[in-house]
# Entry
Amino acid sequence: MSEPRDGENNDPLEPMNRAVFNANDAIDTAILRPVAETYRAVVPQFARDRIRAFIANLQEPRIFVNNLLQLRINDAGFTFARFYVNSTLGLAGFFDVASEHELPRQTGDFGQTLAVWGVDSGPYLVLPLFGPSNFRDAFGFAVDLYTTPPAHLIAGSTGTWITVGTYVVSGIDLRSRNIETLDQIKAHALDYYAQFRSIARQYRDGQLRTARGLAEEPQELLDPGAPAQ
# Structure
């Protein structure tokens, strides 16, 4: 099954999606952006880098499994090597030693695996708090959330809550690194929702092309709300 092409919004739930998007934006403006600003101002760059590396290392087993499920054997080898090197020489993943030794980080999530297996993306979907997705990737995200360490290593709900906590910290860190970028997009987009949908879809398409072993296609990020030239 093919992914939506440019010009194919595949957004039959747009009224609902816009409502969720607007709610997410309101929460971001009132809470997430200020928290991200405070995080960036209070936590030194060195500490932020260590936190980011540690959380990324926790995700490597999930990436490894999905690399195997997608038959990306070479990528799985890189991922295994990254996890081993960073977990040992990188002091439990706080230092990304692997990247310094030309072991690049791979992509790998269950939504991506389903796409490689031929599962259609389904309609575009905006998730509360988590943002742009689709039916396939939303299901894949739930699987990833459940299977990312320590969710399946610690009995009971403790592991799940720790995993949720790591996603929250990771989200705050990601938001802190994109404050100016999102501000610019929001300030210049004629239709912020449509522009964000386009950017999210192109970013995801790049990940899926990588998983399928296709060459990356540079794309110009156009504002869908802009008038035709």
